Amino acid sequence: MNEVILKEAADIIMNSEYFIALTGAGVSKESNIPTFRGEDGLWRNYDAMELATPSAFARNPSLVWEWYAWRQGLIGNCEPNPAHKTLSSWENRGILKTLITQNVDGLHIRAGSVNVLEVHGDLWALKCTSCDYRERLSSPVSGIPTCPKCNSHLRPDVVWFGESLNPQIMRKVYSELELADVCIVIGTSALVQPAASFPLIVRQHGGRIIEINIEKTIISSVVDVHISGKAGEILPALNELLQ
Length: 243
Ligand code: APR
Ligand code: ZN
Prior knowledge:
Layout: H1 3-14, E1 19-23, H2 42-45, H3 48-51, H4 54-59, H5 61-76, H6 82-92, E2 96-101, H7 107-110, E3 116-118, E4 121-128, E5 134-136, E6 154-158, H8 167-179, E7 182-186, H9 198-204, E8 208-213, E9 225-228, H10 231-240
Parallel strand pairs: 1-2, 1-7, 2-3, 7-8, 8-9
Antiparallel strand pairs: 4-5, 4-6
The protein binds adenosine-5-diphosphoribose and zinc ion.
Adenosine-5-diphosphoribose binds near residues 30, 36, 187 and 189.
């Protein structure tokens, strides 16, 4: 681990006025949750267009539910890792103001983070395909759940490809991005909009960007500090340098 780069990132964080984080699937890798696009990524083994789109659900709700139930089972057996725990401790110490995550695994909240904006939804939340009924599961679903109010199919309350993000959450996200003078971007390929542009918005008004990733991404060329490594190792090491 490059101590000089870590020290540079720690200095930026310690001198920040409004420090926020953006995370992707890589932050949960040390919790043994597969990413989407890595060598063992979900989209390598499953067809996203067959599983994570409104038309896929309309065409074959039981296949889509089978896949989400499998992911719920996988995630249900996973624990927050040191990356999640470090971010939660930074919020407790007043260092980190807000955590924006693309992940639906709920591990940031299970690690104790409170000010979390889940822009792609929550794997454990269900919503009715017809009325406003919603519920939250604590164990994996079985079969196709139906709405107790109108008997329509319930679907995962996650953002599928081609769907828009929750406007209330997005209003909060954009106001946080405007306030932020430092944004740490952890474990995302920065390929999916609008989240991929969030760090660029911070940068546009003069904010600094720190990136933690095991490899370079399409935003690496515009970040102030790129720390190469595993989130579950880099974040605790970075934490050591924050008095
Ligand atoms: N530590 C840090 N970064 C890691 C680690 C790790 N241990 N392991 C993998 N990574 C990095 C990869 O290099 C990659 O850049 O995490 C990133 C994971 O990228 P994706 O699999 O594309 O996941 P993400 O960026 O979160 O995807 C965004 O796409 O499929 C949709 O809705 C889904 O929220 C998801 C969105
Ligand atoms: Zn209903």
